[in-house]
Amino acid sequence: MKIDLYSDRAKTAVQSAQSLALARGHQQLGPEHLLKVLLEEKDGLSRALIQSAGGRPDAADAATDALLAKTPRVDGAGGQLFMKPDTARVFDAAETGAKKAGDAFVTTERLLIAIAKEGGDAAKILKDAGARAQGLETAAAAVRKGRTAD
Fold this sequence. Notes:
The chain is mainly alpha-helical. The protein has helices at 8-23, 31-39, 45-52, 57-69, 85-100, 108-118, 121-128, 133-144; strands at residues 28-29, 82-83. The protein contains 8 helices and 2 strands.
């Protein structure tokens, strides 16, 4: 993961996901943590993209909460956080997607699309909520109207 290639909002999302995992006593940072913080974005861009892609953001949020609630807690781990392999694949897919699109930075919508493609349980949550990667890509392209993230 090359954090310097991430937009300020994407960096904030990654940091918030790490904070969420630590606050819940989770030892591993998963795509579900990132999905949760994206669903809580103030401007609701991720929620809007899910809806535009034919999905149900409230269903995705509820399923993400349920998954996080059943993730084992580890007390006394000293605040050490490990990255799940799915999370590494999400970051790689987001960086690859940004590069293919001609973006200088990885954006939050690229992270959301990457979760839908490579996010393991989080990808299944999006799929079950009606949002697939291709639909999210189409929705993101419509919002961007040909602009790139520079």
